[in-house]
Please model this.
Amino acid sequence: MIFKTPTQYFLVSGASDGYMPLNAFDGALLQAGIGNTNLVKMSSIVPPHCQLISPITLPLGALVPVAYASMTSDEPGQIISAGVALAFPVDEDRNGLIMEYSAKGERREIEEKVRTMATEGMKLRGWEIKDLKSITIEYRVKKIGAVLAAVVLWG
Amino acid sequence: MIFKTPTQYFLVSGASDGYMPLNAFDGALLQAGIGNTNLVKMSSIVPPHCQLISPITLPLGALVPVAYASMTSDEPGQIISAGVALAFPVDEDRNGLIMEYSAKGERREIEEKVRTMATEGMKLRGWEIKDLKSITIEYRVKKIGAVLAAVVLWG
Amino acid sequence: MIFKTPTQYFLVSGASDGYMPLNAFDGALLQAGIGNTNLVKMSSIVPPHCQLISPITLPLGALVPVAYASMTSDEPGQIISAGVALAFPVDEDRNGLIMEYSAKGERREIEEKVRTMATEGMKLRGWEIKDLKSITIEYRVKKIGAVLAAVVLWG
Model:
């Protein structure tokens, strides 16, 4: 194996305005508590027996594997939302599945969609679902805004 | 070095419809046999002396470096294709080069294009080509479809 | 920790035309001296006490974490630019911040923008800036061109 397999995970979300879209995204990361790390985006599995923990303070500048949904918008007043959903199988020797979704629109709508996506992903595997978690955030853009919902892998 | 350098690689492809574009992509990954891993996208080199192996079952949830082409479409009936090409130099102490390409259109067309891209990449290096491999997949979208062709690095 | 935290970094830039956008990007990477490695994109922090070094020759095919701005264009004659800016805090136990920006337009304009982005990022953290570095590149597209400015992390 090139990389170690994660053994812990936690869920965070954040939203922010900023000078430019990347600044808004940076602000959303800071609000989520992961703004001073190096995020490496990956798709999108919770390894078997990976433990849910409360969000921790990550070492500054650490390289951190993360699955996330995000969106930026420069339309003042627009509502944007981002969510991730995690579906876990009854068979605990199998992995969980992470789905990400972001769009214009309210939190409730995006949360429902991303949870259905995770449910559909487990159906496709033919695996019965034991547990379905999600975290979603909604934000009304002031000038240039960003939302972020993330699963951070650690261990 | 932050990460270990891969010593093995293999080629896979897949295609699927799904509830949402990300579900279709997930289905394509599952069909390719890499749907239960955490893919870390990278650009796009085969290290020197890296060995081609047959596709293996990766540990569930493992972080896996991968170079891939993919595409999703929500136009029923549309044909979409994705391909990767790998060009290897005569001098085996040098690295191979991976090129990725995806587009609307048939497999043969995309395969020719991506192979030419890899050939051009070796020309740019001034390296004579010993071997050129590729894997390409074509898919006719039902409702929301995805194609994927990938080089998985391992070792 | 899944990955080791980088201890060194260096700045590079490059530009090139190419047969396809990905070939132009490959050419820009080659000109920057990082074209024969496997870049893993990350967002976008310089760990505390990470040392600036002169660009080094990386092992062929190594997996390398990198923060970069890039852009491709197929409009002959168009000027495209990419830049990264790094802001470092007075408190050296804190991390530096990397911002990336690319757009149509001249180098000077893009450099000013990306430096302001990094300055704003430090303001958002409430951290006083000790040092601000940047690297920016401008390129006039012949047929299909790409620009790249990057912070390579190593250690």
In short: The mean pLDDT of chain C is 97.
